[in-house]
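User: Hi! I'm a student and our assignment asks us to look at how structure tokens line up with a sequence. Could you show me two examples?

Assistant: Happy to help. In each example below, the sequence comes first and the structure tokens follow. Example one:
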Amino acid sequence: MNTHGSGPPVEQPEHFEFTPENIERVQVHLAKYPQGRQWSAVLPLLDLAQRQSGGWLPLAAMNHVADLLEMPHIRVYEVATFYTMFNLRPVGRWFLQACTTTPCWLRGSEEVVATCERKLAQAAPPAETKRPLERWCRIDSSHEAPLPIDDTDGGCDCGEPVKNYRAWSRQIATIEIHE
């Protein structure tokens, strides 16, 4: 299985179930699709499972989503290994994702990535970070790129497109990372 990164095998939890709160969210997602089309909820359910699992998607969570959707496990694995938004290995304490699709790149995303890399190298001990910065491709709103991602509240609040990437990069450079 593609792990979206290299390294030793990951210790996997044996069991996964959605919390009661997340079961309600699952029901909301499933209600969006007509009977017989529930497989279409695989992306939001995998995302929900990843959030519940601390930012990564264990095999038990993928199997649980497949069972909920009455979907072959291999189909869920195919989705999870295709999209880089799913982390198939545990992520570290600091984890940033930077979109580097063509629209973002044309507007200066590489400068922001370089600034983040410098900042993390100064502040984060390597053992703590695991994979602190990952390049990925947005599957939404790339035409409005670049968009800052704030995913701390369990939802994607992308805000307004960044008009001046260099100014944003300078702002990131001033952030202090504390324990």
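Example two works the same way, sequence first and then tokens:
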Amino acid sequence: MVPDFTAQCEIRMLPFDSAAVYMRGINGKGAQLNAMKLFSVPTCRKAFTLTELLVVIGVIAILAALLLPVLAKSKQEGQRTTCLNNLKQLQTGWQLYLGDDNDMMPPNLWDGLPGQAAGSEAGSWVVGNALETTPTNIQLGVQWRYNSSLGVYHCPVDTSLASDGITPRFRSYSLLNYLGADPDSIGPDSSRDLQKGSQLKHTSLILAFVCEDANSINDGIFLVEPAPSTQWRDMPALRHLQGCTFSFADGHIEYWKWKSADLAEDPGALARLQAVLPEP
């Protein structure tokens, strides 16, 4: 007679070496199964061989070598876009000033101090020197009411420090020396000095704000002597993949790639800037 196992099933836990399972049917007879056979589960583990591990490491290294330069370039291009956007906002603020101040340009005046100590005079678009350890003089500039975010004045690639050697600089941009220049200045290039927007001709060809080289920037003025001069006075930046960002008087922005990493040895770079100065 076949035992009936549809009734109650009882599992009694015994020490592992003598554990057994008892199943009682309605006829009182039970069946005993050996626990070792019931719970015996075959296991199989296989590890990587040294050769396989080296192959995996090699593939990862190749992928990293291919992807990291792409990611780095993508980051630099993103930072360049941010810098261009900063210049666009500064240029827009400059144009708004024209509309609110009877067509007068934001003043762009030198305080008379020489060399790296040079600063912008009070009442200028920004005041003071780019090496200052506080942003106070940026906030005192007449353009602050239109561009009241400090980040707009700083290039994201500019890692230079203020005069204390600790504080990151607050300003990376300067404005072309002929725009908002001193109306009383006397010099060989004073015929190019402009104070009103209506004096501008061919605004799409007139340089305005510049991302200036960290070793060149001091006051808020970007000084360029016209041709036939071959002397650099202030230097544009090379930090954007050996290029620089600019805004123009009509409001558009541009990125220029330099042919040489040493602009002092590249007369073509200076000539390119001289071509976008106001006419005398």
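Here is something you could point out in your write-up. Confidence is low (pLDDT under 50) at residues 1-40.
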